[in-house]
Please model this.
Amino acid sequence: MGAHAFFLDVDGTLIDLAAHPDAVVVPDDLPRTLARLAEAASGALALVSGRTIERLDGLFGVARFAAAGSHGAQLRHAPGHDVEAVPDLDPEVAQALKRAALAFAGVFVEDKGPSLAIHYRACPAQAPHLRLALEEVAAAAPDLVLLPGHFVFEAKRAGYDKGSAVEALMRHPPFAGRTPVFIGDDVTDEAAFRAVLAAGGLAIAVGAPRAGAAAVLPDPSDVRRFLTHLAAQPHQRGR
Ligand SMILES: O=P(O)(O)OC[C@H]1O[C@H](O[C@H]2O[C@H](CO)[C@@H](O)[C@H](O)[C@H]2O)[C@H](O)[C@@H](O)[C@@H]1O
Model:
């Protein structure tokens, strides 16, 4: 393996899914494995998540890794650097989405500033009705996009996603010039799959095959084992 840049989705890829966003468990040795791999890749490792960078820092250690948060709305090019972010959703649009969502018993809304995650894990049968209600709000807000995920609709502005986040990170050191590898499990990761493929890289799906993915790892524990193995390879540094 030559000089690679690693872009890693979080929920359902690095960590197991849980009943609630606050109930996830980060295995003790995972931050250390990621730090080792980042070191072996001369810092070219980023977490690329729908979560905010603040939440990622809470899970993995403050400012420990480069990161893209809130589906590309936030970017941190290197550990310790400032976070660049697009503006929050228009407050009236956010309010209208929350009103529409909370009309459904069991739905809860995670307000991430530039995006909202509207979770329906507790009431999956409501998904089609919830979707219609959210689409009605989105129809009156031309800048708004609804992304489906694991028992969630993510509402965000158009113009950025995990693909644009990977492209932006790849423009600067230590990522620039390396071969990008993205590992992800969800439909929201497919934009990043396209970005790494366009840059001559490799996409790896988790759980099930996805468009553009060259390989599938069965679940997050296999991803963690794979990353541990990579971190132990001496020749990642490359340049
Ligand atoms: O891009 P990711 O790192 O995969 O983040 C996607 C969303 O993850 C979180 O929600 C999902 O995981 C929860 C915990 O396992 C689960 O309860 C929920 O049903 C999933 O949708 C997070 O809360 C969202 O903000 C992220 O966008």
